[in-house]
Amino acid sequence: MKKLIAISFLSSDLLSTTELSQLLKLPLLVEHFTEHRQENSDITLWDFLCMHYAHGIVKDADYEKDMKLPFKTHDGCTNSTLSPFTANNFSTEVVKSVIAETTSFPSYKEAFTASSFLSTIWQPPKYC
User: Fold this and answer.
1) Residue 91 pairs with which residues in a beta bridge?
2) What is the C-alpha to C-alpha distance for residues 103 and 95, in angstroms, rounded to an integer?
3) DSSP 6-20
C-alpha cells in the first residue's frame, strides 16, 4: 500500500512540474499519424516524425492539429525552488547621489557565528 501511495505522489508531482504530461498526448500522435497514412500509404513513422519534429514549425493545412502533438508546445511547466538560506543583518544603504553609493554587508563573524557555538565544547576552529 505504501508503494502505491509513493508511486501516485511521485507521478502526480512529475506530471505537474515537468514536461512528462506531454506523454498524455500520445493518442493524438497516433491519431494524426493514421490520418497521414490515409492520405499517403507510403509514409513511415520515421517520415511522419521527421516531418513534424525535425523540420521546424511549418504552417500548412493541418497546422492546428500539428500543434496539439506531444512536445510541440509548452504547457506552462513551472518549477518551484525553496532556499533554506535567510540573510540576517543584511542592509543596503544608498546615498541619493549620482556618484557615491554605499553598501554595508555584515562581516563573517556577524553573519555566521551564533552564540550557541560559544557555549558548547565543540567550538569552531579559531584563527591565530
Assistant:
1) 104
2) 9
3) HHHHHHHHHHHHSGG
